[in-house]
Each structure stands twice: as structure tokens, then as C-alpha cells.
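Schema walkthrough. Field components (list of strings):
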Amino acid sequence: MNPLRFTRRNLLRGGLAATAAIPLLNARHAIGDNVSPTRFVVFTTPNGTRNSLFWPTGTEKSFTLNQITKPLEAYKSKLTFLKGIKLNDSLQNGALGGTLGSEHARGTGGMLTARPLNAGKDFVSFGNTTSGWGSGQSLDQYLATKLAPPTKFKSLQLGVHVRDTEVRARISYTASNQPVPPREDPKDVFTTLFGGMTTTTPGGMTDPALARLWAQRKSVFDLSNGETQRLMKLVGAEDRAKLDAHLTAMRDIEQRLVGTPGTSGGTGTGTTCSPPTLAAADLGVDDQYLQAGKNQMDLAAAALACDQTRILTFQWSYSESEHLFQFLKVNNNAISGNHHAISHDFASSGTNFLAYNAIQTWYAEQVAYFLGKLDSYQEGDRTLLDNTVVLWATEIGESTQHDLTMMPYVLAGSAGGAISTGRYLDFSSARKDNNQLLVSIAHAMGAADLNSFGDPSGATGPLSVLTA
Amino acid sequence: MGIPGIGQPLPSAETCAKSQDVERTPLRRLTRTEYTNSVRDLLNVDVSATADIPADEVTNGFDNNAAVLTVSSLHAEKYVLVSETLAKLAVKNLSTLTAGCDTAAKGEDACALAFAKSFGRRAFRRPTTAEDERQLLAAYSAGRTGGSYAEGIEVMLRAALQSSNFLYRLELTPATDAAAKRIPLNQFELASRLSYLAWGSGPDDALLDAAAKGELGTKDQVAAKARQLLAAPKARAAIGGFFEQWTSTRRLSITTKNSAQFPAYTTELRDAMAKELPAFVNDVLWNGDGQLSTLLTSPVAFVSGPLAQVYGVQAPASADGSPVKVSLPANQQRAGLLTQAGFLSVQGHPDQTSPVLRGKFVRAMLLCQPPPPPPADVDISLPTVDEGATARLRFAAHESAGASCAGCHKLMDPIGLTFEHYDAIGQYREKDNGQALDVSGEILATSDASLSGAFNGPAELAAKLASSQQVRACVATQWFRFASGRTEGGNDACSLATLQQAFDAANGDIIDLIVATTQTDAFWYRPQVTP
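Field assembly_structure (string):
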């Protein structure tokens, strides 16, 4: 397999060439030498977990990792296990309309919104429960708007073999009925993130042809936005919200597509920040999941290290995933079943029991790889991982039960010291609503005035124990 | 519960004659398919760059539900970059693009204005306003200043393709009566509805001319125009697209199979499967009797590449690689689209067949009676059975698990199990795990009483479905969702009645169904909404 190489010539030749040049400084250079930015990453893997093999044993500060999370051993002191987080009542069975959509769909749409799916006949979930799409803004999008980081991407959504485009495949929402799709092609991500590097001449001057393209783009943006604003006066409230989202999207992309002619493109002097080398991976082949994922994880880590974004979602497959794992072996035989079917095998031994454990452990290895990448970037006294809060999440809890009352959530990193890590917190005797976890993450990210997030059926305020 | 015509009575003709109620369609952003077709017709260039636009979210099986068609940052970025690629290609053929306007004789400004008017009309699907022309010329100036005439036109094209007037199907005609509950669409808006209905693309000059001349003023005129558009070759992919989405065979491109169990399932086979359904539909619609019953019962296949082997038939390869029509062996009991390899592959799992998904398709998409959800307290673990059992034995666990599972699964399983002669990629098999297959089944709890009862095998099931009034009413309803880009609402009852009754009266003729869409209130009106 030939590694993909992105030469200057290739990038300029393509239709995707010529996004604006943003200096490729590492993050500390980008915002001053003394303070590193804090970042938020949501890292999702599908199909729940098996509680008995997932949660650590021991006490809050002295615990042993269990079988499924063993691959995270090296980062144990930087983890926070959160046992006993439940999705709020609006997302639970039988309460407050919580039966809208299957548990897989609800747990996906409610993961970062803490809101139920919209009512309606628009969508028939696997279990034939009907619902609409997510009903509110997700935390990543809230933070992107609220904190408005001065980065090329206010937020970035990446996926690996997500493929699906239904409710179960969207975790990020700008607003009700406005899901944000992830980017799934590493080549596209690479070009989008690092294409700007090629827009300057060796002398560091903006390529005149690009300066011209940017000026033209600016004119077209202004015309397009002016027309959209005019149309907004002619339509009803719901359509106006849709056009307003369009305007917001245009503002979001303007800085990186229009550039700032006259300023130097910069040369990227940051020693720790450089584009990764990708290897080819056929996105349609399940067996190449690992390489496709590595490409995206390397790009995600580079995007954070280069301060191209501070808010990132990273999705493996879709919830209720039927991805195949023939590349993993159990008792010397390739796993033949699909992940979702295997996840419903409730036996406590046998082929599918072992297969499910192997798949869950494989996903934990990917979490470990990603954490290792982040931890490899030094930022002063800390690492990029320390300056990040990663939420590792999945759409349901105990997989055989479609449980939504004990979500297998783990945090990694301390968001620059805001979160006290190396702990196993057990709320299972007094469950906490996911709203509170989202508020806590917002606080760690610097949105200190947020007191409640999501559906009002959930508790307000942060989980103060996280910072204790 | 239920929908009008299925589990709910249709409103009377008297009620509908008086009704002024219509449902609101949210602002419709072009789907990726509509965008692609539109720029193909506008620019006549290679439009493969539109593959960079994100795939549309799927709602109720269809990718054109307006509620969720929004412009995310990713969409906005791709609209910018794709428009640049397309505009660059288009101006390579400047003279054709600008209809030979001679800048030496007429002057560049005059030619640019003429192009703004002619191109703007087609891109925005209505005559341009002075404001439109001012904007398009401003974009032209951004390219022409310091650049060539061609560059000016190129930037104008980018601006047109990034305009909300192009990206959304706008219907903005103001009400003439402030008290009216509904507003009739103007003829340009009707022209757009017609062209996206029949072609999945914008109106051409001829259709816009017809609107300008007032030739879309009556229901008869619009019906005749619909038939005319449907006869054009570009209608075939668009109508085929409905069937691909309705059956989920559009998902073939993201459907994977276990490579050890199904080594035959290669990219080539998947592509051949994907080509079969539209070829079949087009054959029935344009060379055959055009009836739904034929789509559900015809024992033929359209094979290309490795698909012949899946069906176990010999087929001559066509010169251009397009699918070739073949009859299927009677012993396979194949019957129409429900036994096509592509359908059976997507209505299945990567590693095994899914009688549940196959049965659920029949209930949800052919009967419009999706089973209720599993009860909240049910243990959703799969039944554990001995290796080597047939699916029927394994699924017997749904019965033995007690009423909570059996209540719904008896609606799906006895239908889905009749397809067990076809494996997870649709290959015929005499036995499963070495055991003989029992493919008898039963349809329960239908709204059309004649549909209920026992059957033996897929051909008998298909025959029952093909003669059912409920199935026709359901397919008309599915088509309505696709055609109107939304799920039906309470104010659609009269439109659904028009559509279902026309389809039934036409004995399930698909073209008549499509044309009947243009006779509904939902097609002619939108509700008055205060801005």
C-alpha cells in the first residue's frame, strides 16, 4: 500500500486547493507563551459496554482497571471514571416522552444535548419507535459559540466509517433539527486542515493568485449573505431559523476560506506541530477500520496541537453499529458476527461473549492510541492531553439491556488542571443526570456562568466533585 | 392511530371541497442529488465534484425531508469549493455557455447582463429581478476587474451557485388576501415543483417559458405538462431514485458483508445490484404495463457483471455494461423487487439474513403499519440457540419469550421468514444449515381484510400484496412523503385522499400516481405564514 503524500503541487491542482493560510504555529505560540488553551474532545464508540468487565475495582483513588479498559493503564492517572451517570428523565423509558426513538437513537441524540429527540412521525427507529431528530444544541456547539475560540475551526467533527446518515449517526447539533455531519475522508480532512500551508511562496508572501481568489470569495460571500438576510425578512419563523443557521455557517467558514490578503502566511515554526503522514485506507472496507481510524486520530491530534480547533467530536461508526471485526480473532477464529448482534448476546461465556469483549477492548486500544497521541505533544509543563478534557462515551450502557441509567463515561485529561484526575467516582447509589456532567465540562472549558444545560427534567449545576 | 386511508377513514369529497387547510413544507434546501442534477443541466459539465457535498440525512427512509435539510459549516464550505470547481469547468466553453453573445459586437457589459438574466433565470428558477442582476453583475466585476471577461463570468457563476436563490426551493409569492388560510403558488413555483418531481432537477427554459406564458394555470395543464416531463429521459433516474430510497437499496453503497462468508460480495457485485432496481423499474414503467403489481410479482432480473452468478443464470453481457433482462428459474420463487439481490442484501445483516428487517419492510413500507416498539422492560437479548438451527427455529424464541415479544414479532417474522430461501446477499439456497426450509407465512392485523391470511412462499406473498388496496394506499403515501419532502400531517388528509384514490382507480399505475400528485392541494398551495 502506498502512503498518501500530499505535495504542494497536488494540493494546488485540486478543486479543494487554496484555503486560507493560517500560521502553523503550535498552540502555545498561537496564543502566547504562558498559557495553553483548553480543549474539549468527545470520543464515541458504539454499542454500549458490559458493566462487569468495564468498571474498575477498588476505591476512588486506589483502583484497578478491568478487562475492557486495561489498554488505558498507561494513562490511568489522567482518567476519571464516572460510574452512575444517567441520561435525564426526558430520555428514559416511560417518563416525560422519553420513549421517543429507540434507546440507541435517544442515547445518540441526547448524549451531548441532554434533550429528548423531537416528537413526530419523521423517523422510525430500529425498535419502531417514532421520533424526529435531536431537539436542541449539543454541548460542543454551545461551547463553540459561547467561547468563540480564535481558531480556524470553531469546532471540528470527524468520523471513522460512520457511513450512516440517520438519527443514530449524529451526535452534534447546532440547534433542534440541525445535525452537524462529520467529515469521514482523511484526504478531505488533511486538505481542509493543512491545505493552507501551501498558499505562500517560499519567501512567505501570499501567492498573488490566491490573494485574488480570496478577494473574489469575499465579494461572493458578501453578496450571498446579503441575499440570505433579505430572504429572512420574507419567510416565517421556522424557515428564518434555517436561513440564520446558514448565515452562521458562512461566518464560520469565512475566515479560513477568505484569508487576509496582505498579511504573511507564516511558515509554521512550531516544532511540535506538523501534518501527519497518512497511509491509504479504503473507507468502504470494514477490514481497514484500524488504518482509517489512525489517519483520523492523527489528524485530530494534529488539529488540536496546531490550535486549528479546540472543540472536536470523534465518532467511530454509528450507534447500533453493525461493523464487522473479521480482523480480530477469538480462539484463533476471526470474529464473524456483526458488532450490534454480538452486543446482544447475553451469555456469560462462549464465542460471542468473547467476541464482544474483544471488540470493546479493541475500541479501548483506540482510545489509548488517541490519548497517547495527545500526551505526546508537550505544552510547557503539561501535555496536550493535560490541557484537554476528553469524554469517551457511547450511546447506551449495559448493551444487552439498552440501559440508559448507567452510562459508561470516562473523562481523560484535566482541561489544564480544572479536573482532578486519577479517580474512580461512583455515583451508582445516587445517580447523576448527564446534564450535570455537561455543565461540568463547560465549566472546565471556561464557560463558568453556565448553570444548566439541556432538558429541565435533569438536575442543574455542575458535578462539583470533579474539581474537588 | 394510522394514516388516512390506512386505519383511518379518508375525508369525504364534500369535506375536501370546502377545506382550505394545507400543511406547511419547511424551506427545502436542494438535496445533494438535486444539486447535482441542477448543475448538470445548468452547466453541462462533469459534475463529479458534487460528491464532496455531504450525504443528506435520511428521515423515514428518504433523504429529502425538508425539516432536517439545513446548511452546516461543512455544507457551506463544500458549496463554495464545488461552485469554484464547476465554474472553472464551465467557462472553458464560454461561447456555448453564453449562447454565443459576441462581446466584440455587443460589448462585454451587454453580454454579461444578458448572461446574468438568462443564467439567473434558470439557476433561480424564475425571471431575475433588477436586484438579482445587480448582484450577479457585482460578482462579474469582482472577476473582470484585473481579470478577463471569462473570469468575470466565472465569478458570476460561483455567486449564482452560492446564492440562497439557487440552494433553496423558495416559494415566496405574497398573499393577495391577508385573511386567506392558503396561498396559491405562482406558475414559476409550480414549474419548479414539477421539474423536481419528474426530473429531480430545475426547470429548463421551455418549462420556464410555459410558466411565463401562463400555461400552468389549470390542473389539466399541469397534469399534461407532468406527463410530458416524465417522458424525458432524465425522468428515469429521478423516478428510479424514489424506488431506490423506498426499498433502501440506495444503502448498497454503504452495505458491507462478511468477506469470509460472502466472498462473492465484491464492489463489482454491489454496483451491479445497485443498477438492477432502476433498470427494472424503468422497464416496467416505460416498456411494460407500469403497474405496481408488476413491480411486486415479475419473475425477471436485470443482470450485469457478477450478478448473473448470484441468480444462477447465464446472461449475455450488453455492449455498454448496462443490465440485461433475464427470466429467473421458477424453482427460486422470485417475485419482483422483494426478491432482488440488492433488496435482500440491504434488508439484512453483514453476516446473516434478517427476517425481522425483511418483514418490517413489508409492514412499514408496503402496509404502512409499522409494528409498535418493544415494551420498555423487555430484555432485548438475542435468543441463544444451538449452532446450525434454521432462522425459523431461532425466531421461535420470540414466541417463547412471552407475549411482550410475540405480540409484535408475529406481525413481522412470519412475513420475513418466507424469504429464507435467499441468503444475506440474495443467493438462492435450498436449505439453511443443512436443514429444509419452511417458508409458509401469515399476514396478520391488516387494515385491508383481504390481505390477511396464510400464504406459502414469496411468490404467494407477492401476489397477495400486488392485489391489495392497502398496499396501493401505502405506496401512494410513501410517494407523497418523497414528493412533498416531508412526513404527512393532519392537513394532508384531502391530498392523500386525492392521491390514493387516483392510484387505486388507475389500478396501481405508477405514472398515474406521479401525475396525480400534481392534482393535490398540497401541490398547489402553501399555508399563509406570517413572516
